[in-house]
Every structure is written in C-alpha cells, then in structure tokens.
Write a structure and sequence with these properties.
- Helix 1 links the parallel strand 1 and strand 2.
- Strands 8, 9, 10, 11, 12 and 13 form a six-stranded antiparallel β-sheet that branches. A four-stranded antiparallel β-sheet has the order 4-7-5-6.
- Helix 1 crosses helix 10.
- Helices cover 34% and strands 21% of the residues.
- It is of the alpha+beta class.
- Among the domains are: 135 residues, D-amino Acid Aminotransferase, Chain A, domain 1 (2-Layer Sandwich); 62 residues, no CATH class.
- The longest helix is centred in the C-terminal third of the chain and has 18 residues.
- The protein contains eleven helices and 13 strands.
Length: 326
C-alpha cells in the first residue's frame, strides 16, 4: 500500500472467550502489519458494546482477529452482516458449521475428507461407562485451540469409568464429543483465498515432546517444534493439501482456513484423518498460517493485506450473496 491509502480497518480482538489472550496477540500483530501497509487502523477490544464501537468507528472493513465464541461461531459475522460491514474470514453459515466438530464431520465426510468416527455423549454417561474402547479422545463440540481436550488411555488417572470428581472437561461441559484416539503425527495445512481462488500453502508437522498439540503447546514458545515443510512422503503432503482445499470449499470458507490432521504413518494414506477445520486461524508470531505463508513467499504484512483485499473484493462483487451465505 502507498502512503495515499485511505482505507480504514477496524481490528476486532479480545472478547470474552477462553482464547481472549491469543486473540489480543493476533489482533495487535494485525494492527502493526496494517499500519505498515499504511491503512488507517482502529483497534477494538470487543465487549458487549461492540456494535456501538463499530458504528462510531465507521470503518470501511473489519479484520476479524477474534478466536472462539462469539468471534468464530457466526455471532459477530451476523452482526457485521446486519451493519453492512465487509469483514475478513468466513461468514455466518460457515462459522456455525465449522466451529461445531460434529456438524463439520457431517459436512466434510460426504466430500471425501476422512475424519474419525465417534459420537456426542452426555457427561453423565461417562460416569457409568466408557463410550468407546480406550484409548479415546473427549473434546468440547464447539471450542477452538484444543481447549478442553482430554485423551483417556488405559492408564489414565481418572477412574474406570471416569469419576465425577476427576479433573477434566466433563467438569465444564454437559456433553462432549468422543472419538477414537488416532496415534501418530500432527500435521496441518493452511489455505488462503486469492483472485484466482483458494490455494493450499503447504504442510507443517508439529512435533511435541509430551502430550498433544493442546492450547498450551500452541501458544507457548518452545513447547512445540514446527517442521515446515513437513518431512513426509509426497503422497501424504498431496492428500493434506487436497483435503484442506476440499474442506475450505465445501464449508464455504473465505480468506483463510487451516485443517488439522492426525496421521498414523504405519498405515500410509489410510492412516490420515482430518480432525477439524479452523475458520479463524491464529495470527500470532507462533501461528501456523503466517509460518506457512512465509514459506510460500508471503510475509506477515502481505498476508494481512491479502485478507483485507479479499474481504473488500467479496463485498464489492457480491454483497447480497455475502450477506446471505458469508
């Protein structure tokens, strides 16, 4: 952008979700990048008065740097649609589906994206019997950043069945998604929209010494090693990119998305399973989308610029469709 740029961007960040601190890191990084590109920038730490703040700021476009509820579940998207404000990332319907892990399975598996089986279980049931053979995974249906995920193994210190007073997500939620545990490696692929349509940016492997890629590992420097590009067979990399593109298109994602995988390398192509598609990937210095973009030759400020341009382009070419379908 030149110094003559007059586009005013409001950056929504913070909020009250579990991922508030991460959102603030993303939002501050986005603000700095936008200012480097000579945008006018207004930072908004989202509160219940967000509509009034947006009306007062009167931006040309909103950069959605929120994570979790209500930033990526369709709530803020609906408000922005009502206000007629263009915004980055996905719209209402996509956000509602993608944040719900069970709805995501129902949307993606018919399109040939392999995902683990499983079912939603009432937490009361966990205190009577295991819903699946151990090891299995319990996770909230609609939280991001691996918040509240528990892996129940043969030697888990939670009782058999799970004890009511054992620490775990069953203390916070009334129902959880139970899935078979897939051993193996953590992989992820980002997709970004451009004038020529969406493209996959590559595949990263996340190497963790202990545990799995949970909230702490995602956002604590030094806890996870990112290998980009992942040292995996070309056919697995191809499938990761293929499934990520399928997910991005089938869900109706815009701007950018990131699809996460577990890969049992002993099973080859049959061992690759998509876990979820994130419609509001992190934009912190440790985040995977900026990292993959750098590897693809797109620096952080260019990435932010591309997302703003994508939002403005979609709004100017199909405002009615954008309002209805995101």
């Amino acid at each position: 952008m030149s110094a003559a740029n007059t586009i005013h961007v409001a950056v929504l960040m913070g909020g009250w979700a579990n991922e508030r601190e991460v959102s603030l890191m993303s939002g501050n990084g986005v603000c700095d990048a936008l200012e480097m590109k000579d945008y006018r920038v207004t930072a908004i730490d989202m509160g219940r008065d967000v509509a009034a703040k947006l009306a007062e700021a009167a931006p040309d476009v909103v950069f959605n740097a929120l994570h979790g509820v209500p930033g990526e579940d369709g709530t803020i998207q609906g408000l922005l649609d009502i206000m007629g404000l263009p915004y980055t990332h996905s719209g209402v319907a996509t956000s509602v589906i993608a944040i719900d892990k069970q709805l995501t399975k129902q949307a993606l598996t018919p399109h040939g994206v392999p995902m683990p089986g499983g079912r939603i279980v009432a937490c009361e049931e966990l205190y009577e019997r295991d819903p699946l053979p151990r090891p299995y995974v319990l996770k909230p249906v609609n939280e991001g950043s691996s918040v509240g995920v528990a892996i129940i193994t043969e030697d888990s210190n939670v009782g058999r069945p799970i004890a009511r007073d054992a620490a775990g997500p069953w203390q916070e939620f009334t129902a959880l998604l139970a899935e078979p545990f897939i051993k193996g490696r953590e992989l992820t692929t980002a997709v970004i929209d451009g004038e020529d349509g969406p493209r996959a940016l590559g595949v990263s492997e996340l190497i963790i010494e202990h545990g799995f890629y949970d909230y702490e590992h995602k956002y604590t420097e030094g806890r996870t090693q990112h290998v980009c590009p992942a040292k995996i067979p070309p056919e697995i990399a191809r499938l990761c990119e293929e499934y990520a593109l399928k997910a991005h298109v089938a869900l109706g994602c815009h701007g950018t998305s990131r699809t996460d995988y577990r890969w049992d390398d002993e099973l080859g192509e049959e061992g690759l399973f998509a876990l979820e598609t994130n419609t509001q990937p992190g934009m912190t210095p440790l985040s995977l989308v900026p990292e993959q973009a750098r590897h693809a030759g797109i620096d952080y400020s260019e990435l932010v610029d591309l997302l703003v341009k994508d939002a403005l382009r979609r709004h100017s070419t199909a405002p009615q469709q954008e309002s209805a379908h995101g």
